Amino acid sequence: MGNTMSSTKTGHKNKAQGEDGLIAINDYPVFPPPPPRALLADRDKYIAHVRFRRHRVPFGKAEDTSLYALYRIYECMVLEHVVGYRNELEWFYREHPDWSVKDISDPQDDDHERYAVLSCIPPLMVMAFNNLIKLGLPRDAPPILSWELVDEYKATPESAKKYEKVPAWTNNVPPLPNELVIPRCDESIPKEESYEPGFKEKNIIMQAAHIFFI
User: Fold this and answer.
1) CA distance 201 to 145
2) Distances (CA, A) of 208 to 32, 45, 204
3) pTM of the predicted model, to two decimals?
4) Which terminus of the chain is more exposed, N or C, with fewer CB under 10 A?
5) CA distances, 189 to each of 38, 81, 99, 140 (Å)
């Protein structure tokens, strides 16, 4: 998936240390990450941070969670770091079949704009994941498929497919009173015909996300 970050464990033995023995804090995500306008105000810096950090969870935390993953996707979507959020979507789908989208905890974020963006992401995850599930590819499928297994998955009856659902809390997050515009990487404003519909419902203007993968 092209992700440079380590897997879920970040115990003390795995702390990133320089030659002086100090912890490289930039190797870890900040939780919660900055609000959307702060990310956009220094976009290049934050994209570099997301691309090159080595760990998926904040410093001092041992295990990854679906909520941490949601915030990582949030960062990448606001920054329009397409490879980054696609990698995170694949990571969630393939590496954590035990994580149900509907069970992502309500972040109850105290920043209204960040909370609104966060609430728009699980519906996109459900669309992307259910597209694969409809094709017969379960979340616990091995990374390499034999032709026999492909045929077996294709023959999965509809009643046996376990579709993802949207967390209830996402519907309780109100639209923003003031429009939030997320420019593209070249600082252009998305054209109306390419708005991401779910974000527009929350009064957020963002380019449609590339969420589908195989």
Assistant:
1) 39
2) 24, 23, 11
3) 0.86
4) C
5) 17, 16, 34, 39
